[in-house]
Design goal:
With about 425 residues, the protein is of the alpha/beta class. The protein has 16 helices and 15 strands. Helices cover about 30% and strands about 20% of the residues. Helix 3 crosses helix 4 (about 80-95) and helix 12 packs across helix 15 (about 415-430). The chain is elongated and about 75 Å long.
């Protein structure tokens, strides 16, 4: 393939007023993207902060790799084909133009100019079977730390052709994560590997105001990883830097009219269902900017020395439970929807038979915690002072240090029921555009 067949703006890295996507790279990014692939190491990992242009570099590198001759398959790998299309392919297709590609979203077969690529989703340990027997000449991997360890190690063994190249991007994670421990820090791989670190200041297209916004939107471990680009352990209380006195409100500081029909955009009841463990339901009002946790319905079976049935929990939710939880409207058409622990099938059915709209809570734990942390740090998630169980859980919700030492990050599964309910709500109803607004 001749350079003349590639889009001029990509090759010359020009800024075009009519096309704001094609903006200049920073010096470090420019050096990597436009370097002859023959001079690259076998594996190149772009790591560091969010919005530092790592993924954008991969997009342009893919275009330039179309003229790089190497034996074996060319593959683009991510958590799923849908995620790859959203993160990489949509912008890639816009750059090259519809005449220069064909893509089959079912098979993952991609023709880009006169080269053929295969798009692969790798979302579990069984995904490595998709590489068995394959010879890989070029691999592009986005969100490296989200891919299974077995798949990544299998990919190493597939890069057998002379001149084979693997390019990947990632935000940092735990220093015990297998990407750090088994790839980046492995002395046996050092001579084949280049790691390029990027920070916010390496992207010249970000304004100082936006960089300050990003820095202020991440706290604790998320600030260290997503802003400073450090591989650090998540430890201690999860929301200790985000859940402060400023998170709380009372009747006097609640926005006027919030609870009226026109005072909010949405009202939801997120629920974490427990039989032996505690049952937690929250009454949440979203005014379009901020989520207000107005009330809690909390039943701790161990403390109360009595378990309740699904029917009894539904009765409490709908008919009320003392002053702490007033009954819902007599007209079921005015009831808020419920966002429920996705594993609580029988309770979801119970609510549905009562006439309540029920939605499964999104249950990506780490992504949900990140979103909640961002909402808290931006004062876009507030909790009424009367929600004492919710406040206590949010203050003590902690990382499991025993698991962290093994590279697995998860909260301690204790006293987390209201915290989980908040996570279901934010993960399910708050899109990334809200976090960046």
């Amino acid at each position: 393939m001749r350079f003349s067949k590639l889009p001029k703006p990509v090759l010359q890295n020009e800024t075009l007023n009519r096309e704001p996507k094609l903006l200049p790279f920073g010096e470090k990014a420019h050096e990597f993207v436009f370097r002859d692939p023959a001079k690259d190491k076998r594996v190149t990992i772009l790591e560091g902060s969010v919005r530092s242009s790592k993924t954008w570099q991969l997009i342009v590198k893919i275009v330039l790799l179309c003229k790089y001759r190497v034996a074996g398959q060319r593959i683009i790998v991510g958590v799923s084909k849908e995620v790859i299309k959203a993160n990489l392919l949509n912008d890639l297709f816009e750059i090259v133009g519809e005449k220069n590609y064909d893509y089959n979203s079912q098979s993952g077969e991609l023709r880009l100019f006169d080269t053929r690529w295969r798009v692969i989703g790798a979302n579990d340990e069984g995904s490595e079977r998709r590489l068995r027997g394959a010879t890989v000449g070029i691999a592009i991997t986005d969100e490296l730390t989200k891919l299974p360890r077995s798949f990544l190690l299998m990919l190493f063994s597939r890069l057998s052709p002379p001149g084979a190249r693997w390019y990947a991007s990632t935000n940092p994670d735990s220093p015990y994560h297998y990407v750090k421990a088994d790839i980046i820090d492995d002395p046996a791989k050092a001579k084949y590997l280049e790691v390029i670190h990027f920070e916010l200041d390496d992207n010249p297209n970000l304004t100082e105001e936006f960089k300050e916004f990003v820095r202020a939107s991440h706290v604790g471990v998320w600030h260290q990883r997503f802003v400073l680009g450090l591989w650090v352990v998540a430890e201690g209380a999860i929301y200790r830097d985000a859940f402060t006195d400023a998170t709380l409100y009372d009747d006097d500081s609640r926005p006027a009219g919030l609870l009226s029909r026109g005072g909010h955009v949405e009202r939801w009841i997120p629920i974490d269902v427990g039989t032996v463990n505690a049952f937690a339901a929250l009454d949440a009002y979203d005014d379009g900017e901020t989520i207000w946790i107005e009330r809690e319905l909390y039943w701790d079976s161990r403390k109360e020395a009595r378990q309740k049935t699904n029917g009894e929990y539904a009765d409490m939710l709908i008919k009320g439970h003392g002053e702490a939880w007033p009954a819902l409207s007599a007209d079921s058409r005015e009831w808020p929807g419920a966002i429920v622990d996705p594993s609580a099938a029988s309770f979801k059915l119970e609510l549905a038979t009562r006439g309540m709209y029920v939605s499964d809570g999104e249950n990506d734990v780490l992504e949900g915690i990140r979103k909640v942390s961002t909402m808290l740090s931006r004062r876009r998630l507030r909790v009424h002072k009367r929600c004492v169980n919710t406040i206590r859980e949010m203050q003590t919700y902690s990382w499991d240090s025993k698991r962290s030492d093994k590279g697995v990050e998860q909260p301690i599964k204790a006293h987390d029921h209201a915290a989980d309910a908040i996570r279901y709500l934010v993960s399910t109803r708050i899109g990334d555009w809200r976090l960046a607004a």
